[in-house]
Each structure stands twice: as structure tokens, then as C-alpha cells.
Amino acid sequence: MAERERLQKLLAQAGVASRRKAEQLILAGRVTVNGRPAKLGDSARQGKDIIALDGQRISTGAGKVYLALHKPRGFVTTMEDERGRKCVAQLVEDVPERVYPVGRLDKDSEGLLLMTNDGAFANAVAHPSTHVAKTYRVTLRPGISEEQLIRLSTGIELDGRMTAPAKARVLEQQPGRAVVEIVLYEGRNREIRRMCEALGLEVARLKRIAVGPVRLSMLPQGKYRELTKEEVSGLLAESRHGRRK
After folding, report:
1. Residue 54 falls in the annotated catalytic set
2. Above 60 in pLDDT, residue 136?
3. What is the pTM assigned to this prediction?
4. Catalytic one among 49, 106, 108, 159?
């Protein structure tokens, strides 16, 4: 017989929200168990009881989903937006399970965004302590000097503390523009844009092309694919390695 577990824990494991946010959803009356409104402190049986958020059933069983999405520019990395902006939820509407983004990619950026309904996986990959590598292709204006490249690699002070060492190399340089590959091992808000701004560089285009072993490759804009078992295990292995550093 399935053991009973706190409702907020089951919601977090399903990738719906953090435990704290799940508690807020319960208090707001948006969660039901077997058709009855849930109260804070309620428990349920994974895979046995029917848990729903806003009337939509939540998958708490073994049906875990791991997706790679090519997010276009102009979409916000949320499942709903009170300002009516386009959000990534619209790009995965046909996925039967309720999936959520792993980490963020700002509205003006594009590229690889991982999505899942596995809360433990999302936390392992996105948590700042895991240092999973994220690779970006960045178009800069008016170009980049060797000194600026070194500063991107060694770290720049933002909000009173230095950014973690990164990898940066020039892929292409022409008069008035440069294309640089930057690999980050931390996930501070709009980090690349702010680092470049601190150096007097304009980011004309920012595209994430890889997260750990998962590469964007030829995935079309606005489309998604399932991660392979090897990609999922590779991401988890990289996150465990990062925690040990």
C-alpha cells in the first residue's frame, strides 16, 4: 500500500512548484485531493489519490517527462504571465503531463530550455551549488578585445561579488561585431548581459546552445524533443560532480 506523504512534497516532486509555493497554492484553495479542497497539512498517496491544481490533474506517478525546448526570443520563461506576454507554456500545450522550466532564459534570449515534471531532477540541475555547465553563443558589438575576453573568463564584479570563472573564446570577429562562445557554471540573473554591459559591450544576440551534455543542435525554434536516458543520466552525473567541488 502506498505511503501517505505531505501534499506540498508530492506537488514539489511532480514539478508543480517549490514546497513553499505549493503551500501557498493549497492555502489559496487551488488544490484538491479526490475532488475535495485540500488544507495545509493534508497528505495523499502517490499514484493512488487524484491530486489536481485548478481542476487539472497532477501526475505524481512514475510518468516522468524530460524535454529540450528551443525557446524563441520574445517568450518569457513562465507557465503563465499576468501581463499577457507570450510564455513557454504555449509551446508545450500538447504535452499531456504538466511540465515546468528547469531554470530560466530571459525574454530577449533564445535557445535551449529544459522542461520536466520531475521536481527532484529540476532542483538537481538548476540549483546554484551544482554548477552544471551552460553554453551560450553571444553576438557582441562593436567587437571584443583580448583584455575583455580575459575579464569575462576570470570574473567581473556584479552586485558586490565576483562572477565565477567562465570559459570564453572568440568564434568569429568582423569589423563592428564578434561572436563569442561563453560557458557559465553559475546561474545569476541575466549574468552574461550584465557582464558584457560592465565591459561596455552590447549583446546583439544571445543563444543558449547547450546545458551539460544536452545540445540544441538542429532543433527548430518553438519545437521540443524528449531527452534520451543518456542525457538525463549525464545531467544528473554532472550535477552530482558539481556539488562535490
Report:
1. no
2. yes
3. 0.75
4. 106
For residue 192, pLDDT beyond 80? yes
* Closest C-alpha to 100, from 46, 59, 145: 59
Amino acid (1-letter code) at residue 141: R
pLDDT one-digit tens code per residue, 159-181: 899 998 899 999 999 999 999 99
Amino acid at 188: R
Q: Among positive and negative, which fits the CA dihedral 19, 21, 27, 30?
A: negative
140 closest CA partner among 94, 197, 83 = 197
Return contacts of 35-41, CB within 8 angstroms, 24+ apart: 38/7, 40/8, 41/6
On whether the CB atoms of residues 112 and 208 are closer than 8 A, the answer is yes
pLDDT of 212 higher than 70: yes
Q: 134 vs 15, 28, 58, 103, 194, CA distance in Å?
A: 21, 36, 30, 11, 16
Sign of CA dihedral 110, 68, 123, 180: negative
Look at residues 155, 177, 175 and name the one whose alpha carbon lies nearest to residue 164: 155
Identify any residues that bridge with 5 across adjacent strands, giving them in sequence order: 44
